[in-house]
Each structure stands twice: as C-alpha cells, then as structure tokens.
Design a protein that fits this description.
This protein has about 200 residues and is α/β, with parallel strands linked by helices. The protein has one domain: Murein tetrapeptidase LD-carboxypeptidase, N-terminal domain (Rossmann fold, 3-Layer(aba) Sandwich). Helix content is about 30%, strand content about 15%. The protein has 6 helices and 7 strands. The protein has a 5-stranded parallel beta sheet, with helices on both faces. It is globular and about 50 Å long. The mean pLDDT is about 95.
C-alpha cells in the first residue's frame, strides 16, 4: 500500500506515546522546524506523566486514536522514545479509514511494525524532540522522504563484504523482540533488518 505523503499546508499531530516530555524547548524547536517546511503542527500530548510514561495507557491510547481517526491529520509525529508504545498495542486494532504515516524511531518501533504487519508503511525517522539536534543532512533526508523525493543511497562501512537484496525494515532491537508472538510482528521474510 502506498500512502499519500503529507504536503506543506497539511496538519500534522504530535503525540507522546512513550516517555513523558521532559524538554519542552526541544519539542517547540521540532515543531518550528516542521512549520518552517510549511506544515501546520498540532501538539496533543498528555501533560500528566504517569511514572516513567507520558500518561496512563488509556490516555496515551486515546491520543493515538484521536490522531489516527482525525480526517484533517495527515501524519502523526511521535514526541519521544523511552518505553510504553508496545503497551498500547494490547487489544489494539488500527481503526478503519484513511491510513496515515506515523513518524518516529526507538520505542515507536512497536507502532511502525504493527502498521507494517497490516501492510501500512510508515517512516522510521527523527522524533520531534530530537529533530533540532539532527544534522542538516539528516533533516534534509527526512524532508525528502516526506515529500516523496528520491533518496540518495545510505553510505556506511559494512561489517561483511558482499551484496544483499531485500526491503529495509528498521527497528529498535529490544522493542522488536517484545513483538515476537504477537499479531503486531510483521513478516520478516525478505527483510534486511536495520537495528538500533
């Protein structure tokens, strides 16, 4: 399934589904960067942390549900990582309707893989609270990916020589292992895992 990428002028929603927001300036800076690209950003985060989580499971699940079913929300931006997204998936079924991108990494792996298990792609990319700390090249790659522009090949030093072919599936290793045996684990056949 190909999703319509968000375009400048679209409204994006920030949700905190893992750890609590501890650096509101970082969140504000991330919002400003998205807005500088022409997007309208709405922040919908639970402001009453619950221990090491951004809020109670029911409140965080409700924020995800609101963002997912909102017809005026073109993409969901995850606020930060930590722990807690997998807790939201117990009994969770993605609501019918127009799917949208979820953008994040680390703990967001739970959502990204759950979506992919349903054939719905998302974007393993910077969290809104870390976006201002990313390099210019990393941010440009994000803007290019969101806009559907071609991406330059990733550069790096391989551990083993040779060639491989498959589709790239990024994940946080710890979160991915917690999805084993659940309906939220996508098929790994033909995948090249990129683990953080």
């Amino acid at each position: 399934m190909l999703l319509q990428p968000p375009t400048p002028g679209d409204r994006l929603r920030v949700v905190a589904l893992s750890g609590p927001i501890t650096d509101w300036e970082a969140l504000t800076a991330g919002v400003a960067l998205w807005e500088a690209e022409g997007y309208r950003v709405e922040v919908d985060v639970v402001r009453e942390p619950w221990g090491y989580l951004a809020g109670r499971d029911a409140d965080r699940r409700a924020a995800l549900h609101r963002a997912w079913i909102d017809p005026n929300c073109a993409a969901i931006l995850c606020a930060r990582g930590g722990y807690g997204c997998a807790r939201l998936l117990e009994g969770w079924v993605w609501p019918a309707g127009r799917p949208k991108w979820v953008i994040g990494f680390s703990d967001t792996t739970a959502l990204l893989w759950s979506l992919w298990s349903q054939g719905i792609p998302s974007l393993h990319g910077p969290l809104i609270t870390t976006l201002a700390q990313e390099s210019d090249a990393s941010r440009q790659r994000l803007w290019d990916a969101v806009a559907g522009r071609p991406l330059a090949p990733l550069q790096g030093t391989p551990w083993v020589s040779g060639q491989a072919e498959g589709w790239l599936l990024p994940a946080n290793l710890t979160v991915a292992t917690h999805l084993i045996g659940t309906p939220h684990l996508p098929s790994l056949e033909g995948a090249i895992l990129a683990l953080e």
